[in-house]
Amino acid sequence: MLSRHANNLYWMSRQIERAENTARLLDVTYQMSLLPYRVIDSTQAWAEPWALPLVINGLASAYYEKYPGPLTSDNVLRFMVTDSTNPSSICSLTYAARENGRSMRGVMTTEMYEDLNAMWLELRSRSEAALNHGGINEFFEWVKTQSHQFRGVTFGTMLRDEAYQFIRLGTFMERADNTVRLLDVKYHTLLPSAADVGGAVDYYQWSALLRSVSALNSYRRIYRDVITPKRVAELLVLREDLPRSLHACMNEIYEILRDLCKRDSMEPERLAGELHAQLHYGRVEQVMETGLHEYLMEFLEKLHTLNDELNRHFLAPVDAAPSVRPGLQAQT
After folding, report:
1. Residue 262 burial (CB < 10 Å; 0-12/13-18/19+)?
2. Cα–Cα distances in angstroms (integers) from residue 236 to residues 21, 74, 93, 218, in the given order
3. Are 271 and 254 a contacting pair, CB within 8 Å?
4. Number of independent structural domains in the chain
């Protein structure tokens, strides 16, 4: 398969997945912002809930360049939903995915492109109406539904060839990246006071994080007890039966690369296998002993290395590929 074709399909699926993840994150941020919250240290990157989408996506600097002054929910929503100068806004991501899809109409099925094109055409009116006239939660649900629908159409209509594999690969690479960022930022979010750890605010914040990855019901079914950071880490990092866990994502990535990799492109398969083994044989006690932040940052660095190898072996040159989001920085 031509690297240009593989590149377009890979990034199309990453962009659709990222648009969905952004909608999930903004939805849960809105819910968290309604909880009692008191800014303790305004110098912290995440001094208030509406800073979290910017920190997670590595966009804080870009946001403040465009919106100097106090951070507001309206500005964050506009920046993350409709701002055409932000390549990670929902509208920018959907447009980029549609353009990548349009260049691949000979590879994709007619139903896939029609679904993607319809999403873009409807998105413009829906996003402006939601920001200007209310109904933002319904808009986020619509974005998630459209992403689910596109995956369903892809699964139900596309030939199981290399093109299909690159679409799947992009989805799970993006999903793993997002899960790392969500979990790390919540783990470091400062509560109003130390007394709130384990309290109502802490509980609702962890609940909101689990809802953002559709994992709250799964947590309750598995653990049937209070929400704790250790159990959330086990669920989102090591449980391979949770669709958005790191383990589940690496299961898919490793399986795909075993099919795609030939004798002259073994490095991506080796890196994926290393990450898969780390999760498959890991224990939550080892994760917590290492330090959750340190564990996640090491994983994210390896994931970015894997993405670079995918670019080198299968896709466009790294310099020409769409940017991977900046990595999260160590927090103190």
Report:
1. exposed
2. 15, 30, 25, 11
3. no
4. 1
> Cβ distance 247 to 280 under 8 Å?
yes
Q: Give residue 236's domain range.
A: 3-320
Distance CA 181, CA 163 (A): 28
In this structure, what token pair is assigned to residue 62? 């870009």
* Alpha-carbon distances of 91 from 30, 206, 216, 228, 295, rounded to whole Å: 19, 28, 28, 35, 33
**Cβ contact 233:223 at 8 Å:** no
Q: List the pLDDT tens digit at each of the 332 positions of the chain.
A: 678 899 999 999 999 999 999 999 999 888 877 766 554 444 554 457 788 899 888 899 999 999 998 899 999 999 999 999 999 999 999 999 999 999 999 999 999 999 999 999 999 889 989 988 888 999 999 999 999 999 999 999 999 999 999 999 999 999 999 999 888 877 665 444 444 455 566 677 788 889 889 999 999 999 988 888 899 999 999 999 999 999 999 999 999 999 998 756 689 999 999 999 999 999 999 999 999 989 999 999 999 999 999 999 898 664 444 555 655 544 33
CB 331 within 8 A of CB 293: yes
Does residue 328 lie in a domain region?
Answer: no
Residue 147 counted as domain residue: yes
- In a domain? residue 280: yes
Query: What's the predicted TM-score (pTM) here?
Result: 0.89
Q: Is residue 330 part of a domain?
A: no
Nearest to 66 by CA among 75, 58, 57, 74: 75
Beta strands in 230-301 (DSSP E): none
Residue 21 · residue 147 · CB < 8 Å: no
- Residue 237: DSSP 8-state: I
Q: Terminus-to-terminus CA distance in the chain, angstroms?
A: 46
Query: Quick one: tokens of 21?
Result: 């993840």
Which spans in 158-193 are helix H?
162-188
